[in-house]
Write a structure and sequence with these properties.
CATH topology: Methylamine Dehydrogenase, Chain H
Strand content: over 45%
Number of helices: 1
Number of strands: 35
Number of domains: 1
Distance between the termini: 38 Å
CATH superfamily: YVTN repeat-like/Quinoprotein amine dehydrogenase
Largest sheet: 5 strands, mixed
CATH architecture: 7 Propeller
Structural class: mainly beta
Radius of gyration: 20 Å
Shape: globular
Length: 389
C-alpha cells in the first residue's frame, strides 16, 4: 500500500516506535498516486435531493462520524460539537444543539437516544426528540466508532482496546471486555453490531468476539488474522473495518488478514478468503462487497466467499466500505465523489460529486435515498431517478 496512505491511517497505541524506520524514509514524490477518474457512459441517473451543513470541516482526523436514522429523521454531528436532526425527505433542520465537545464518532441511535463519542474520552447522550442532553460520561479513551444503543445498554469501543457497556439511563458502567492492544493500530475502530442479545465486535489484535449484551459475558472469540512479520508494520492485523450480520451469519474483514463468513451462534468459520481491508464491507442477499487495502471494490459470493468480480479503477482513492443502494452498490472517495457500481459485474453505472472533501464513512441507505457525510461538514441525500439516455 502507498506509504502516505498508511501513515494517515495509522495511530501509535504504545509509544516507542519513533525512529525505527517503519516507512523506509523514501521520497514521497515517488509514491504511487491515486487513480484519476475516467469517463464512462452512465446508465443510471442520480439526483441530489438535498444538502445541509452540520458543522466545520474535519480535515485529516479520520473520525467515526456517520449519519444515523429512525426512518424519518437523519441525525448527525460534527467535530466542532454541533449535533443536528434533519428531515430525511427535505433536509430541513428539526433541531440543532451545540455540545461544546470534540465529537469523534456517532451518533449511535436507540432507546430514543443519540450517543456520540469524543476524542477527549467522553460519551454524550442526547434526546432524539429535541437534542437536549440526558447525560455525559467520561470513559478515559478516545471513541472512534459509533456506539450501539439497545435494551437499556450503550455499547462502545474505545481506542484503549476495550469494548464496554454503559447504562442508557445515566451512562454508568455496566460491563467491560478488554483485549490486548498491539504497539501499532489503524486509526479507527469497528462499530459494535448488535444482533438480538449478542453484540459482535472486532479488535485491534485481529480478533473477533461475540458477547452477551446485558452482561458482557463472552459467547465466542476467534482470530481473523494472526500477526506475523519482522516489524510492527508487517504485524499490523487491526480489524478497524465494519462488520455486517445477515440472519445467523456474521461477515467481517481484517487488515492483513481474511474476509470471513462466521456462524453468529457459535463462531464457527463458514468460509474465508485471504484479503486485507481497512475500509470494510457491505452485504446484500447474494454478495459480500469489500473495499480492499488498495481500494479495489471486490464482490464475493455470500454463501461461499468465492470472488465474483473486482473493480480496480478507484485504486488508492481512499474508498469507503460499499453499501447496497437499490439496483447498485455505492461507495464514496477522498475527493467527495460517489460511485454507483453494478452488483453483478462491478461496472460503473453513475458518478456524482457529493462534497468538496473526503467521504470517510460508508453511505447510509434509508428508503429510496442514500445519505453521506463528508469531512467538509456537510450531509447530503441522493436518489436514483431512472436510466440515462
Amino acid at each position: 500500500m502507498n506509504r502516505l496512505k498508511i501513515a494517515l491511517l495509522m495511530s501509535v497505541a504504545v509509544l516507542g516506535l519513533g525512529g525505527c524506520g517503519l516507512f523506509g524514509g523514501g521520497d514521497d514524490d515517488t509514491a504511487e498516486q491515486p487513480a484519476e477518474l475516467t469517463a464512462f457512459d452512465s446508465s443510471m441517473r442520480v439526483r441530489r435531493v438535498w444538502r445541509s451543513s452540520v458543522g466545520d470541516a474535519t480535515e485529516r482526523l479520520r473520525l467515526g462520524l456517520r449519519p444515523a436514522t429512525d426512518g424519518t429523521t437523519i441525525f448527525a454531528g460534527a467535530y466542532d460539537g454541533n449535533a443536528v436532526a434533519l428531515d430525511a425527505e427535505t433536509g430541513r433542520t428539526q433541531w440543532s444543539v451545540e455540545t461544546e465537545l470534540p465529537l469523534s464518532s456517532g451518533p449511535g441511535f436507540g432507546d430514543g437516544l443519540l450517543v456520540f463519542g469524543t476524542d477527549d474520552g467522553d460519551l454524550v447522550a442526547l434526546e432524539a426528540t429535541d437534542g437536549s442532553e440526558r447525560w455525559r460520561a467520561t470513559v478515559g479513551s478516545e471513541v472512534l466508532a459509533p456506539p450501539a444503543v439497545t435494551a437499556g445498554v450503550v455499547i462502545y469501543r474505545s481506542v484503549d482496546g476495550r469494548l464496554r457497556g454503559a447504562s442508557s439511563e445515566d451512562g454508568t458502567p455496566v460491563w467491560s471486555v478488554e483485549q490486548s492492544l498491539p504497539a501499532l493500530t489503524l486509526r479507527g475502530n469497528t462499530a459494535p453490531y448488535v444482533a438480538g442479545q449478542i453484540v459482535i465486535s472486532g479488535f485491534a489484535n485481529g480478533r473477533l468476539g461475540a458477547y452477551d449484551v446485558s452482561s458482557g459475558e463472552r459467547v465466542w472469540d476467534l482470530a481473523v488474522a494472526n500477526p506475523t512479520g519482522r516489524n510492527e508494520l508487517e504485524r499490523l492485523v487491526d480489524i478497524s473495518a465494519g462488520l455486517q450480520v445477515v440472519g445467523n451469519d456474521v461477515y467481517t474483514v481484517g487488515y492483513q488478514g481474511r474476509a470471513l463468513g462466521v456462524d453468529l451462534r457459535n463462531g464457527i468459520v463458514i468460509w474465508q478468503q485471504e484479503m486485507s481491508s481497512h475500509a470494510g464491507l457491505g452485504v446484500d442477499l447474494n454478495n459480500v462487497y469489500v473495499t480492499n487495502d488498495v481500494d479495489a471494490v471486490v464482490a464475493l459470493d455470500r454463501q461461499g466467499g468465492t470472488p465474483i468480480w473486482s473493480q480496480e479503477a478507484l485504486r488508492l482513492r481512499d474508498v469507503t466500505a460499499p453499501t447496497r443502494h437499490g439496483q447498485a452498490v455505492v461507495v464514496g472517495d477522498f475527493e467527495g465523489y460517489l460511485h454507483w457500481l453494478d452488483p453483478n459485474d462491478g461496472r460503473f453505472l453513475a458518478r456524482t460529486r457529493a462534497a468538496s472533501d473526503r467521504i470517510t464513512a460508508a453511505p447510509l441507505v434509508s428508503g429510496l435515498n442514500v445519505y453521506v457525510q463528508a469531512d467538509d461538514g456537510s450531509v447530503a441525500a441522493f436518489q436514483v431517478v431512472g436510466e440515462s439516455g
